[in-house]
Amino acid sequence: MSTETEVTVPFASAAAASGAPHVEVPVAYDAVILASFGGPEGQDDVIPFLRNVTRGRGIPEERLEEVGTHYRAFGGVSPINQQNRELKAALEAEIARRGLGLPVYWGNRNWAPYLEDAVSQAAADGHRTLLALATSAYSSYSSDRQYREDLARVLIDTGLGEGDDPVTIDKVRLFFDHPGFVEPFFEGVREAVEGWIADGVEPSTIHVLFSTHSIPTGDADRSGPRDVEWPEGGAYAAQHRAVAAYIMGRLAEEIPAVGTIGWDLVFQSRSGPPSQPWLEPDVNDRIAQLPGEGKAAVAIVPLGFVSDHMEVMWDLDNEALASAADAGLRAVRTRTPGTHPAFVAGLVDLIEERLNGTPAAERPHVTDLGPWYDVSRPGDCENARLGFLPAAAGLIP
Questions:
Q1: Is 147 marked as binding a ligand?
Q2: 86 labelled binding-site residue
């Protein structure tokens, strides 16, 4: 394969190699790589897993032990691997139903099965034109560019991206505003609000908190393409706010009485030192303020999460719901997409977009920010500490 400096998009299919934002010609992909974060599956796995997650960041062992208590409370087992097994099976069933004939290989960043295993097995099975689908919907280093770096690293380390018959890897667009991803969140908010109203709760006393993982403000400001002027919080916060606004606007249309319901974007799971600015407000701090604003009920929506993994089960189901109880609020944590039929169908729709070369103008999206790019733009989601490592599915910075 050509060296990185001689190509526009490293490790790309011929159709994506030009660097156009959207690939609008059909591509004959022969396999799908389901890429995810990974998680421990036993008490002995917890600390080695957390070392993988924090590698190179100088996190002391005592901090790892502190975070490890969250996993140990669930027997050392993160739910994410089982959720990915279920998602893989659901994707395979939907792909088969549509007659697409694409195998799905699953690999993680931080725990077995690793991405190296998935890509190597796909290559051993004779597949060369791969399409990656990461279980992250939004723009940020850890949710987008790091996955693309992982894919490039695997191709470099294994040598599969070189030679006369190289493996290529493209990636489906970020799906934060795809209808299939948004629908389960909307259904959860509607169910919570309708239930409270039916129970006599005044709509003006209901509040909705859309929660996502906090990240350092510097990382947030660098999320998204560098040639776009983003508001505070960068593309990461803008994408979440746009989806939340869509959900609340649609709710007001379907249930006119809810027009008085307020909402906020909040953040959770902060892990950095106190001296480093991270996105705020914290979900628990915002919950504590709600009684003083006359609120009686709060719906906590895990908008930044694809499934009920540890940050949802610990930080929301445990800590945030406890904060709501302390504040005297009625509270519910709404569902994540998981294997909701609309979500699974939506992911396969995204695969078919690339198989068919669907024009950008015909791609479904529920916010003005979409449809997002097939090929990441220059400088997208830079990691200031590491710089720009080789990354698949994006233009070289």
A1: yes
A2: no
